[in-house]
Design a protein that fits this description.
alpha+beta; 3 helices; four-stranded antiparallel β-sheet
């Protein structure tokens, strides 16, 4: 005797659709975190570049303006040769069922640029060899600008 299996597909769909919806929402949340991370890296890089050219620049303002993240914290360090700017921010969780577990995800970024102030190298208009050790060690060419951007999405223990 053959049974009617017309309702089987409906039951399977009803069981699988919540899992598919949950996976789609997790992808959306991951995209939000990655977007904020890219914006944070951009802001920190712009601030580090500005500080390398002008040490009196408003690093926090530049980082916030370039990233579009108003609630980020910015710190910088200058060892005389390199300027390092570090930024951290919290990305809010937008997926409803994840909000009950955790309210935000911490992200941070760091950028390092070589200082371009007068004490760090030759002034404009100088020729190779006029400032001892400036271009000579690079074969008469301008030394390469170094930049290091590190980023880590840090997921701390549940609060």
């Amino acid at each position: 005797m053959k049974r009617d299996q017309g309702g089987q597909a409906t039951v399977e769909f009803a069981l699988v659709i919540p899992l598919i919806a949950m996976m789609l929402l997790l992808i959306v949340q991951a995209a939000v975190v990655v977007r904020e991370q890219v914006m944070l890296i951009n802001g920190v890089r712009e601030a580090a570049r500005a500080a390398a050219v002008d040490p009196s620049a408003d690093i926090s303002g530049i980082a916030r303006s370039a990233s579009g993240i108003a609630s980020m914290s910015v710190s910088s360090s200058n060892d005389g040769t390199n300027i390092t700017v570090t930024g951290t921010a919290e990305v809010p969780i937008v997926v409803p069922f994840l909000k009950s577990i955790r309210s935000s995800v911490g992200i941070d970024a760091r950028a390092t640029f070589r200082s371009e102030t007068a004490s760090a190298g030759p002034s404009r208009g100088s020729t190779p060899g006029s400032n001892p050790g400036s271009f000579r060690q690079h074969g008469g060419k301008q030394p390469p600008r170094t930049m290091l951007v590190e980023w880590v999405v840090s997921v701390a223990a549940l609060r």
